Amino acid sequence: MRCPCLVGVPYLELVHQLPYCPLCGSRIDLVVPGLCGSCGAAHYRNARPTAGALVVSGDKVLLVRRAIDPWKGHWDIPGGFCNGDELPAHAIRREIQEEIGLDIDITGLLGMWLDTYELDGSTFDTLNCYFLVDPGPDPIVHLDVSENIEARWFTASELPIGDIAFPKHQREILTTWAKQSGSQVV
Ligand SMILES: [Zn+2]
Predict the structure, then answer these.
(1) For the chain, percent of residues with pLDDT exceeding 90
(2) How far is the CA of 1 from the centre of ligand 1 (A)?
(3) Counts for the chain of helices (H) and strands (E), in that order
(4) How does pLDDT run across 33-58, given as a tens digit for each residue?
(5) pLDDT of residue 6
(6) How far is the CA of 47 from the centre of ligand 1 (A)?
(7) CA 78–ligand 1 middle distance (angstroms)
(8) I want to staple 156 with a disulfide (CB 3.0 to 4.6 A). Which of 7, 132, 135, 178 is the partner?
C-alpha cells in the first residue's frame, strides 16, 4: 500500500526522493544524497543488498518460477534480500534452505549487479550478489510453494532467457554463467 503523502510522485523518482526527514520529521522533499534543511542530518542513497545463487549440478543450473510479485510466473534465480545483520554469503545459505530445501557449499562469487526493485508503488535500488554454489551429489529439491511454484534444471542452451524475472540484470548473469561454463545461450 502506497503512503498517501507520495501521491503524484512518479515511481522511479522514489529511488531518489525523501519526502520527510526520518530524524526530525520535517517535510524536506530532498533529492538524495543531501542534507536535511531543518536539522542538518545527512541522507544517503544506498542500495539494499540481495544474495542469489547459481545452483549448479553437472552442466545444469536450477531456476525457480515465482509464485509472487514482482515478476510472478517468471523464471528466477533463487535468492532474496539480506537481513540487516547478515552477510550475503550467509543470506544465500538461508534463502536456499528456505526456498528449495538444499544445503549448499559456496564455490565462488560470480559477480555483483545493480538493479531497481518495484513493488506496491515503491521503487528502490538493489545491489545483487550472485554466488556459484554446489548442492552436493544428487540434490533433491523441496520447494516452498508459497514462494515458487516450480523448480527445474536447465542446461545453458535450454535457459528460458526470454521469460526471466528481473531481466535487467538476471539475463546478463545467466549469460555470464553460460560463457564461464563454455556454453552459449540460445
Ligand atoms: Zn531533519
Answers:
(1) 80
(2) 25
(3) 2, 11
(4) 999 999 999 999 999 999 999 999 99
(5) 63
(6) 21
(7) 38
(8) 178
Q: What is the pLDDT confidence band of residue 21, given thresholds at 50, 70 and 90?
A: very high
Query: Mapped to the 3 state alphabet, what secondary structure does 83-126 carry?
Result: CCCCCHHHHHHHHHHHHHCCCCEEEEEEEEEEEEEEECCEEEEE
pTM to 2 decimal places: 0.86
What is the distance in A from the centroid of ligand 1 to the CA of 17?
14
Among candidates 139, 183, 137, which has minimal Cα distance to 159? 183
Tens digits of per-residue pLDDT, 112-130? 999 999 877 778 899 999 9
Domains of the chain as residue ranges with CATH: 10-43 (no CATH), 48-180 (3.90.79.10)
Residue 96, φ and ψ in degrees, nearest 5: -65, -35
Provide the pairing of β-strand 42-43 with 34-35. antiparallel
